[in-house]
Structures are given as C-alpha cells and as structure tokens.
Amino acid sequence: MSRFPRWRRGGRNSVSAAQGLQPQFPRDKRIILSKKAGVFRPLVVVFTFVSIAYPFGARAELSVPSRVIISVHDQKLMLLENGARVATYPVSTSKFGLGDGWGRMTTPLGFLQVAQKIGDHAPTGAVFHNRHFTGEVLLPNAPGRDPIITRIIWLRGLEASNVHAFNRCIYIHGTPQEKTIGRPASYGCIRMKSSDVTALYSQLPLGALVQIVPDRLPKVAAAPARPASQDQPATETIISSTGAEKSVTTPGRKSVPVPLVASSGRGA
Question: How far apart are CA 47 and CA 69, in angstroms?
C-alpha cells in the first residue's frame, strides 16, 4: 500500500489536491509554507531596502523639512528649509578629489544623512580628538594647527557610492584654517568656518538629508525673511565671494565672547 493517502479528485499534484492538502509529512509542510511565503516576498524585499536606506532611529526624521546641498564646483553649502534657501556658506572639500574608497582621503558624492551631532555646548574653537572635546580652544588660522574644532556633524551614506562614509568618519566640521575655506583643502570631510558650522549645527536636525554634488548649486528662491526681535542686537558675519569678512549689526542674535588659546593637531 502506498504511504500517500488517496485523493477524491485529481492526482496528488493536482490543484484541487494541493488546496485540500493537510501536511502529514515534513516535505508536504514545506511545500505549503513556501507557496504561502511567496506572496510576501516582494514586501520583504521592499522593507529590507527601506530599513537599510533609512535606519529605524532616523525613521521619524524623514519628514524633517531641512536639508543641505553641497557643491564641489562652487565650494559652497546651501541650507534649505521647506524647499527655500535659508543660507549659503563657503566650505572646503577634499584636496584629494572625490570618492568613497577605503584608505583614500576623498569626499563622497550623493545622498547622505545626519547620523550624529557632537559639540552642543562646546565653545567656538573647541578642539576635538576622536570626537571628544580636549579642553583646548584654538584661534582662527592658528599657525601649524589643523584639528577638528567647534562642531561635528557626522554623516551616514545612503547610496552605494557613499556607503563607507560613516565608517570613514566623514563630517561637516569647523576648522581653524579658515583662510583655506572656498577651495579644496580637506582630507575628505566638509570644512567650514567656526561661526558658519555653529549656525548650521543649530538648524540641521538628526536625520536631515545632505546631498553632495560635483556641479554648481541649483538656483533656489530665498526663504521669506523672519520677523526680527528688537531686544538683542548683535554682530553677524557676512562672507563675500572673495572670502573677505565684514561685520554688520543685526537684531535677534547675541554674541558671546569666548576665551581662545592655541594648541596643536590636524583635522580632516
């Protein structure tokens, strides 16, 4: 006698038999489960892709309106909010070119995401080593010194072309070598002046998108002017196309003097 039960209609491999099949043997159970699981395979693939591109910790930040575009051609960074231009800052990308290869001090292209922010209450010019404040504070353009200073915005790559960015420690950070801002001079990171990176840091939330492009910045309309408070006039730095600075008095911001001392090291 066969070890398989007899079927009232059709053979053992017929459609009607498969629908009424009760798993009596392990291989029968595997057949039924594999057919049911096949319906959900496309959903599993989509969910896996989304989980890799947007980690769970940043899922709530996907709706954040702030984003950044960095132009390697212009050596500028544009901050956008709700699709409008809020500010544009001069930057410095890698002097070794573009890419994401291990062991190469290059700036990656494509879409990245703000993964971590370090230096909330550090003074302007604060020196960081391995992302820890050393207690030292540097003057701008301190001779012989080039560490990471003031603020660190750590980026995570979202594409195959920049997948190593986080482990390569690609940051947006301050540099004491402000005279090099506006031309490629970094070791892979995006360098900014201390005043600029502090302003950007306060406006860019975790999970915000950062796009690094080789071309010029797009033309984007400026955001509507915000109403200014009348009680705290302060000095704001305006950067010209030549890199020169001038101070103007604007309401709504307060300058805080910070003690500065010199120290040694090299940044990214």
Answer: 27
CA distances (Å), 109 to each of 53, 63, 250, in order? 16, 22, 35
Q: What is the pLDDT of residues 54-69, one digit of tens each?
A: 444 444 334 457 899 9
- pLDDT confidence of residue 174: 97
Nearest CA among 189, 183, 208, 193 for reference residue 238? 193
Whole-number Å distance between alpha carbons of 22 and 32: 9
**pLDDT surpasses 50 at 206:** yes
19 contacts: CB under 8 Å, gap ≥ 6: none
Rounded to whole angstroms, the Cα distance separating 71 from 87 reads 14
Q: What would the mean pLDDT of 216-222 be, rounded to a whole number? A: 94
Q: Which domains does the chain have, with CATH numbers?
A: 59-225 (2.40.440.10)
Q: What's the length of the chain? A: 268
Contact 234, 255 (CB under 8 A): yes
The mean predicted confidence, pLDDT, of the chain is: 76
